[in-house]
């Protein structure tokens, strides 16, 4: 079934109608139209009586999908595109603008469609103009580089005023910041400062002036309606304006590409989707299908023709001419690439036209932003994994001439590590035991082996400073993998090329040493050759390159490997050229620099560093100063923008539920869905058991991870820390745990015979968000105890010995028959000791389908029942250790509020509100 190339969206009585444009597309008829119900959001076939003329709706070049948030849903459609390449005569497009249409009612949908149509008319932009502007990409056109806009540059501003008014109309509480987010300019993309060279075309200049004239009036309307109380107060609804803004920013950033008749997710020649009976979305590689989750309602409804797969990454194309001098006897043919302004070759010279296509595909596995997604996850997926394909062909894709394809990949170091975004040069911190790292490391490379064959890893990290340790660990785990049999019997190759040392003095041309050193390996791997529409030679291995970010150094190295592949392919065609020294080949560096900028902006929000060398093969101090400015910009984004952006990416890909926005509202950050938190906590319990329970006679009964105040014997000393609570048949252990190094920092041992009372109940420590004030989800327990000789507090000094602190003997006059409610109400008694624990949220934002099947999942229980069960376990152990054991007797467990909601409100001062408001203003 073909994919709908153009459709019309209009609002009917019961729902949105999606109709193939004019009903004249091949393979489609009136019954192919779809309806999305306003109430249920279900996708179904629309009746013929519901169809309308094209003029009644909004023309769209395809759908990105359906975005549901709480009780709201928005249809995301492609309103503008630009052609960036053609492969076998089939056009490839970049998404340059999108429209978000609310599904709350017909009136709101009609309003949004009308504004979107008005906006398109204001842009003075049409598909015909777009195709004329990109005529250089078509077969037989003059030698010309395809015009590809900056990856974060959009042609147009948003016209989502209807969407904004819909959100406000649903009584969502915002203020002036929200009004700014919801303005036409904010929901769209201000082009200023986002292009690579700072320049903008005249269309954007005119468009920005038009929108600025409308913006002030829209702000006034929005600000007048922002004081209406909220419905429900869901964090996902409160953050909806920012989510909509980011969704537009993401999909209208020239980073997403599609083709109706060509599979962009796979290497050329491997699979011809146009000849397959399968719908395109079933034929594509799911690793690079970025809108799969948003398209799921259409897939489930069987509307295969409306499902348009998108890839994120880069697509660029350049046609060039090689002039070869007549061959002299005994010498190879010399080739010279002619630029647009080069003089014409001699009449007896041989001219050959070629087309170079560059496609980068970002993986949907472990997606996200720089410091928030590092290293490997539990399934062996690495952050910033990108497959890049370089294709050399005839401009007209003549089947009589060979097509050459060369693949290479980049990806984060496949180990569990993290880096703090608060430092300019953060030192990587490794975590998890060696066994856990080795499993993930092996899983990553064996998956690559099944996909690509032999693997040659190239590490560009420093052999000194903070990067030394992780580089050494990379070598260590690679050696262990090879010692265990390698990848399907083939060893993993690893070369450690200290980029900064080898290229010191800004001599980045020295990266050629790396390529030359791997010459034999590259020759063995080869490249794919397609002759007469059949693969005559296959690439048998792949180079995997990484630095710390897999951006700047990696981009320079991959450009060098791509140059080797182009020289080899042209050499096979009988032409010998010098890409390194010939100034006429600078366009090759430019297309690779554009690719590097695109990948960098998708991972770090700025263009790539060292871009001046990649483009010009020269490095000077002006480029160094530009890199410093980009570094500062990255630092700002790491601290301010990336946290919410990461939550949005995880949500749009279907890895997390709307709970992620509740987590973000409370913590200003979200969990990593690729890392099993339950697995981390179970490892912490096992590690703590091995370290703190030194008496072999003690039997381990249970362990839990819970929150505890920073200061002992306090109820609310912020911030709370995640600790490990252990129970044996003799004692209770409270362990402070370092989650980065998997070490116990300190522990406190309480003999069961000294526990006097156990209380569980509401334990509210903050009232800043709705989630933190929910009495059902904020439950804790309190262990009151007498100090005795068996009580010990031990602190890990990270030396050969630990320091031990024993409290004084217990008082013989101590009386523990007090009124627990009065004791808690009065803030406790400083003469008594206690341990306070608060249960972690049982529900998680990670969706079951996103988490690995290996990840243990906690069963769904009520928070209060979970805490009470822990108290009962401790009480049973207390009775069993008595002499003689007592199965019955008065219970030591009492249910009472530890900190009630009313008490929490009294304890929360203005300073806490101020700090939270500042954090929310910065991060949310």
UniProtKB/TrEMBL annotation:
One GO cellular component term noted in the UniProt record for this chain: endoplasmic reticulum
GO terms of biological process kind: phosphatidylinositol dephosphorylation
Alphabetical list of InterPro entries matching this protein: hSac2, Inositol_phosphatase, SAC_dom
Biased composition (Polar residues): 151-161
Region listing for Disordered, in residue ranges: 121-161, 193-219
Domain HSac2: 675-835
Bias kind Basic and acidic residues: ranges: 204-219
UniProt feature, compositional bias: Acidic residues: 123-133
Domain of life: Eukaryota
Domain (SAC) ranges: 247-605
Name of the protein in question: SAC domain-containing protein
Organism of this sequence: Penicilliopsis zonata CBS 506.65
Lineage per the UniProt record: Eukaryota, Fungi, Dikarya, Ascomycota, Pezizomycotina
